[in-house]
Design a protein that fits this description.
- There is one protein chain.
- This protein has helices at 43-46, 52-59, 69-75, 87-93, 114-126, 140-152, 162-167, 169-177, 191-199, 207-220, 233-253, 268-282, 300-303, 346-353, 364-378, 386-403, 421-428, 439-447, and strands at 6-7, 17-19, 64-66, 83-85, 98-103, 131-136, 155-161, 181-185, 224-226, 259-263, 289-295, 305-310, 319-324, 358-362, 408-413.
- It has 454 residues and is α/β, with parallel strands linked by helices.
- The strands form 4 sheets. A 7-stranded mixed sheet has the order 1-4-5-15-10-11-14, sandwiched between helices.
- Strand 6 (131-136), helix 6 (140-152) and strand 7 form a beta-alpha-beta unit.
- Helix 2 (52-59) crosses helix 11 and helix 15 packs across helix 16 (386-403).
- The mean pLDDT is 95.
- Bound molecules: pyridoxal-5'-phosphate.
- The site of pyridoxal-5'-phosphate has 20 residues, from helix 6 and helix 12.
Length: 454
């Protein structure tokens, strides 16, 4: 009997191309608009923030985009990442389903985020950029970009949401260990930050505000660009290495997924594992169900409006059509800091509108419960964000049990939780509660959406 649990490719099998789903979509997503003119943005509008190579990828409709050799060379340190068959979890659940998970927690920063951080730092170095600015919520993106900046000799300045800055000193320490500068946001270094601090010196910050600060600084200096850890097309593109590897590994196992599950904050780890499989389907291959799992406290895909909105609070970014809770919406405090963004990747939103993906929202208590069941069966403590994917996968496995179906489930275990043990301390101590978002505040945030006739 085949009882393999680990499907490991050697480093010569690292994919040579990222997969661009724009090549296979039945219709193109709505255009990105300039915040001032409300006309589709041009490459030159974006060049204050991003280097040409990344802008090209942002608008590309080419199916395969070559991964530069220096990027593959760095990937070799932890890629290909392992694909595991969760046999002990299957047993614990008594499900006839086969559960596979791709484990991205083996990267130096502990999540999928270095896949794009390394690529972005590379292209910026090639363009002679000396400094990158960015935002971070829980700190995973900030530490990933700090790591990548260190490898390519680029200074990294991270605006970290104030509440996280105070609550998660270890992530901040990790960024500083890699040589990055980490500031609590709102900060005194930008107009956007100073305005907010003047109104409220104890402002807790938000991702939308931190983005405004990072964008403001990048736009001011020609040697400085901005880097985003999710949402944008080129970020999703870089993450497709995850799904491409998983496809080769499932091939080794002689399997193909019936269902793919991933958590969604901005949509990049979800896109990373799902898009290569969706591409197969769009080109006439096997159909696959794809389930996005988001937090009930920040439910952009399941409760948000599909509308044009800003990516940030100060309204400096272009307008994209996406599932949004409104750029002024502040989700209630909960532990999956990486899932607290008000919007969703335009590509993921478009797929939802086309009916090609499903979405569900889960509460944090259910997710931590699932995370611990997983840890006790498989030994890996998932990041709070990743517990949403675990929860979704367990729900699918239990459905298979009820229906008596031996389906194949694949999920993305996008990061480990070693820097998030306070969340587990709180959960085990009975201190976590399920807070749903404030309906009235949501209505207000949605009422404030920009009016765009397109
Ligand atoms: C940042 C992060 C997320 C959320 O971002 P996506 O772009 O939706 O992937 C999820 N999980 C982990 C571990 C993260 O670091």
């Amino acid at each position: 009997m085949n009882d393999t649990i680990k499907y490991q490719l050697d480093e010569t099998r690292i994919p040579r191309f990222w997969y661009n789903i724009a090549a296979d979509l039945p219709s193109a997503p709505p255009p990105v608009l300039h915040p001032g003119t409300l006309k589709p943005v041009t490459a030159s509008d974006l060049s204050a923030l991003f280097t040409d190579a990344l802008i090209e990828q942002e608008v590309s409709t080419e199916r395969e985009i070559e991964i530069p050799e220096p990027v593959r060379d760095i990937y070799r340190q932890w890629r290909p990442t392992p694909l595991y068959r969760a046999r002990r979890l299957e047993q614990a659940l008594g499900t006839p389903a086969k559960i596979y998970y791709k484990y991205e927690g083996v990267s130096p920063a502990g999540s999928h985020k270095p896949n794009t951080a390394v690529a972005q730092a590379f292209y910026n170095q090639q363009a002679g950029i000396r400094r990158l600015t960015t935002e971070t919520g829980a700190g995973q993106w900030g530490s990933s970009l700090a790591f990548a900046g260190a490898l390519f000799g680029i200074d990294v300045q991270v605006f970290m949401v104030r509440v996280s800055y105070d609550q998660k000193p270890y992530r901040r320490a990790l960024m500083e260990a890699y040589g990055a500068r980490c500031l609590a946001s709102p900060s005194n270094e930008t107009v956007a930050g100073r305005d907010l601090l003047a109104a409220n010196p104890a402002h807790p910050g938000s991702l939308g505000i931190a983005i405004s600060e990072a964008v403001e600084l990048a736009a001011q200096r020609s040697d400085t660009k901005y880097a985003l850890g999710s949402v944008l097309n080129h970020v999703l593109l870089h993450q497709t290495i995850v799904g491409k590897e998983a496809m080769a590994q499932l091939d080794m196992a002689g399997d193909y997924p019936d269902v793919i599950v991933a958590c969604t904050g901005g949509g990049s780890n979800f896109a990373g594992i799902a898009f290569p499989f969706l591409g197969e389907q769009l080109r006439g291959g096997q159909r696959v169900r794809v389930v996005a799992v988001e937090p009930a406290a920040c439910p952009s895909l399941t409760r948000g409006k599909y509308a044009y909105d800003f990516g940030d609070t100060a309204h400096l970014t272009p307008l994209t059509k996406m599932h949004t809770l409104g750029s002024s919406f502040t989700p209630p405090g909960f532990h999956a800091g990486g899932l607290r963004y008000h919007g969703m990747a335009p590509l993921v939103s478009h797929l939802k509108e086309l009916g090609l993906i499903e979405a569900i929202a889960c509460t944090q208590l259910d997710c931590f419960d699932a995370g611990l069941r997983f840890a006790r069966a498989e030994g890996i403590v998932p990041a709070p964000e990743a517990t949403h994917a675990v929860r979704g996968a367990i729900m699918e496995a239990m459905r298979c049990k009820i229906e008596g179906k031996a389906q194949t489930i694949l999920f993305n275990l996008c990061g480990h939780g070693h820097f998030d043990m306070q969340a587990y301390i709180d959960y085990l101590g009975g201190k976590l509660v399920d807070r749903s978002y404030d309906e009235a505040e949501l209505a207000m945030a949605l009422a404030g959406l920009p009016s765009v006739s397109a």
